[in-house]
Design goal:
10% of the residues lie in helices and 34% in strands. With 444 residues, the protein is mainly beta. It has a twelve-stranded antiparallel beta barrel with strand order 1-2-3-6-7-8-9-10-11-12-13-14.
């Protein structure tokens, strides 16, 4: 909703229910009220809402029936502006009073009567032909602030029928984030017209696009809350997963994985820059260049396809193939695996990867067919932090059993930037060792 109209003297305001009068200009006071939220520019510039426009949404009370007199002894039974509050309450200030204008049924100009905002359920003054009453006296808003919850939407835009109750289709004027998705109502209904327009998310649905990720989580991670994403699950840090299942065409990611195990060969440090690109819906390619001690260690190519996904069930599965060439050994390996992902409920999710890997190392005279597997479980603390436990296994060949257990944390540094880090223990090259790893991910 745009900035509210400049308040006019009571004598100039139209009676409740009458046609709205001339639109006033937006006041600096009301502009300041919406400043500081992401939707400020659209809210302030739309110019949709003058006070008279708000009033025409609801049946207003009559004009003030008399001029308020602060010295009268019977002010506790008089309601000069017929707003549901006695003149005594309105004249009083501090804890004993409302601090509202006894000559104005809507002191803050938000389109909701003062008595309704304070939960009054019965008329005070029999002389009032009509009086606002609250349909839900258990709730309150502030009659001296046009935006009680600070979400950049006036109370009268949220309580569109002005009855003090949160009815179907309305946002809550007493709640910054009605649907609890992590975004203020005004940041979702950015033009303030109480409709879901292009470019907006719904303040009444925590997951506007129905992809299993709350709108606020998607904004924090740099994905589009209006477009269903890949099934929402974190990816294991160490095992090379090309993309999240269900990737959209045109998605592009660059990341680099660092692994350190001081007692191992290759100098103990392996770092692997890679790029990933979704060339079609649900299908992606990868190029990775593992480096060891500053030298090229391998070239790796990957491809992935999604076989099925259900946002309703929070599940997806697909396939992945990797081919890696190791120049120093003139050897190569290839793997083909099945990838599964499942939302377990609440913050929990799991990923499984199971398949076969074929190794061929001519210089060492080795050939082997191995089982490869990954099982990872994750718990999302909030949009910025996810905890995980990853387990990897490679078995097969003469005396070979390699494994890794890696607790890890995934931190959303900013939209489209993630940092993953962990410290675990693993067995490789017939040695058991501590292993540290970190991956920096950038969505381009």
């Amino acid at each position: 909703m745009g900035a509210l109209g400049t308040k006019r003297p009571a004598a100039e305001r139209a009676p409740a229910g009458a046609a709205p009068g001339p639109a006033g200009s937006a006041s600096g006071r009301h502009r300041a009220w919406v400043g500081g939220l992401a939707s400020l520019a659209l809210v302030a510039s739309a110019g949709l809402a003058q006070r008279s426009a708000i009033r025409c949404w609801v049946p207003g009370p009559t004009l003030a029936i008399r001029a308020p007199e602060p010295s009268r002894a019977d002010n506790d039974r008089r309601d000069s502006d017929c707003d549901g509050l006695s003149d005594a309450e309105e004249f009083a200030s501090g804890a004993a009073g409302a601090g509202t204008d006894p000559g104005d049924w809507d002191t803050d100009g938000d389109g909701v009567a003062d008595g309704v905002e304070l939960g009054r359920a019965a008329p005070v003054d029999a002389a009032c032909a009509t009086t606002w009453v609250d349909a839900d006296p258990t709730t309150r808003t502030d009659p001296t602030s046009p935006d009680s919850d600070g979400d950049a939407l006036p109370d009268g835009l949220e309580d569109r029928n002005g009855n003090g109750r949160v009815d179907p289709g309305e946002t809550d004027p007493g709640e910054l984030d009605t649907d609890g998705d992590g975004l203020p109502d005004g940041a979702e209904d950015r033009n303030g017209n109480a409709r879901l327009d292009a470019g907006e998310t719904s303040p009444l649905r925590p997951d506007t696009d129905g992809d299993g990720q709350a709108d606020g989580v998607e904004v924090a991670r740099g994905t589009d809350p209006r477009r269903p994403d890949a099934i929402a699950f974190p990816e294991p840090m160490v095992y090379d997963l090309v993309r999240g299942l269900g990737a959209h065409r045109g998605e592009f990611e660059a990341n680099v994985l660092f692994q350190a195990a001081p007692s191992r060969r290759l100098g103990g440090l392996l770092w692997s820059p890679e790029v990933e690109y979704a060339f079609a819906e649900g299908h992606a390619l990868e190029l990775e260049v593992p480096m060891a001690s500053g030298k090229l260690h391998a070239l790796k190519f990957g491809a992935q396809g999604t076989l099925g996904a259900s946002h309703r069930l929070g599940a997806a599965h697909g396939w992945q193939g990797l081919v890696e060439y190791v120049p120093a050994e003139k050897g190569w390996l290839g793997s083909l695996t099945h990838v599964g992902a499942l939302r377990l409920g609440g913050p929990w999710s799991a990923v499984t990867i199971v398949g076969a890997q074929y190794d061929r190392k001519p210089l060492a005279g080795e050939r082997a067919l191995r089982l490869v597997a990954n099982a990872s479980v994750f718990a999302e603390s909030n949009a910025q932090l996810t905890w995980g436990l990853e387990g990897n296994l490679r078995a097969g060949g003469p005396g070979r059993l390699d494994w890794l257990v890696m607790p890890q944390a995934h931190v959303q540094l900013r939209p489209k930037w993630r940092l993953q880090a962990g410290l675990g223990v693993g067995r490789a090259d017939e040695r058991v060792d501590l292993v540290g790893a970190s991956r920096l991910v950038v969505e381009l």
